[in-house]
Amino acid sequence: MQTIRNDLRSFSIHDWIILAMVTSIFLPHTLFLVALTVLDVYILWKDKMIPTLMENQTGKKYIYLFLLLSGIVSLININGYGLTITLGFLGLFAFIGYYQGHIHEKLFMYIIEWTTLCSLINGMYALVQFAQISHAGGYSFFDFHIFNSPKRRIMTTFQNANIYALMLDMVLACILYRFLQTKKVSLKIWYVILALFQFGLVLLTGCRSALVPLVIVIPILLICFRKKILLGVYCLCLVGLLALIIHMPTLIPRFDDTSTITSRFTIWSYAWEGIKQRPLFGRGPWTFHLLHPIYKNHIGSHAHNIYIDMVLSHGIVGTGILTGYVGVQIQNIKKLYTSHRTLFGLILALTSIVAIMGLVDGTIEPLKTMMFFMMIVTSYSMKK
């Protein structure tokens, strides 16, 4: 405890601002936006944000050109939602530029630990929410009944159950990262308990797509930490678990519900029609929402696939610019493989979660999950 007190006393105002942003991720969306705005304005006024961005932010010419184009396209197409979202992402990436200028190893460890604690508290609320949903549906809490409707599943302070499941997956990756890092048995036991609790919450969300990346995330981190024996044990356990699921498919909530899978193909077909209408520039963020009056299709804000939705909303030109930004990040992350292999593993794990779940949902569109993801991904900038 004395070490923790000394560490916290040594933190600068920059460290506390970054930890405040991490905390806001677990607040309701509106409060998160307020926190993002207040912190950005404070940094701009007090800390000369613009020079910090120009000096430290990687890929800035791509991301700000992309956001400028997104704003112009949204204005031309009278896409008010798109313009609002573009402004939100402008604030997000401005903060990420500030983050890259001030992140350091000690702070990064506290970001991971504080995230797991915030997720634990958030999880307590999820249990209360699950009890309320179960009671309203005529079930007991211990029936563990998962409804098919996304609005009748736990989401806590996130936009829906699937986005909450995404956040839980990313937190689980962070917990495994810390479990493999620490040599203290007491801490390892704590991380195991915490991981089991978080995994239980993933099951209660009823999000089946959140289970798939976990199968890949665990071996990624075990390989990067060079834990060959644990990797072998994991492979044996995975084979046993798959055999159990085949024998008892009801272990996975909503395993036999194919209605949402069928609806995805319908959604993607409508999105393709929208892409053909505006292939170069799209209509800005939330283009899919604008297509509903035209095609009388599924009402929603995105196309339930980040790759299709990117081309639909931003066209070939916008997608190409954003690809340049992604390429810059990949080049920087690749350097970690030899210099900081364990951090490379964590970044690869979170990227895998977002990429796999993004095949069937809009994983990187919500600002809160995007903020946490970008904090981890751009931590290659950290100083000792």
What does this structure look like?
The protein has helices at residues 2-10, 13-24, 29-46, 49-56, 60-76, 80-102, 105-136, 161-181, 185-205, 211-224, 228-247, 259-277, 287-295, 306-334, 336-339, 341-357, 367-377. The protein has 384 residues and is an all-alpha fold. It has one domain. Helix 6 (80-102) packs parallel to helix 17, helix 8 packs parallel to helix 10 and helix 8 (161-181) packs antiparallel against helix 16. The model has no long low-confidence stretch (mean pLDDT 88).
How do the helices and strands line up, and which of them pair or pack?
Blueprint: H1 2-10, H2 13-24, H3 29-46, H4 49-56, H5 60-76, H6 80-102, H7 105-136, H8 161-181, H9 185-205, H10 211-224, H11 228-247, H12 259-277, H13 287-295, H14 306-334, H15 336-339, H16 341-357, H17 367-377
Helix pairs in contact: 2-3, 2-7, 3-6, 4-6, 5-6, 5-14, 6-17, 7-8, 7-9, 8-9, 8-10, 8-16, 10-11, 10-16, 12-14
Total E-strand runs: 0
The amount of helix comes to over 70%
Topology order in helix (H) and strand (E) letters: HHHHHHHHHHHHHHHHH
Rg, rounded, reads 21 Å
- β-sheet strand percentage: under 5%
For the sheet with most strands, the description reads: none
- The secondary-structure class comes to mainly alpha
* Distance separating the two termini: 22 Å
Please tell me the overall pLDDT.
Answer: 88
- Spans of 5+ residues with little confidence (pLDDT < 50)? none
Report the principal-axis shape: globular
What is the domain tally? 1
Q: Note the total helix count.
A: 17
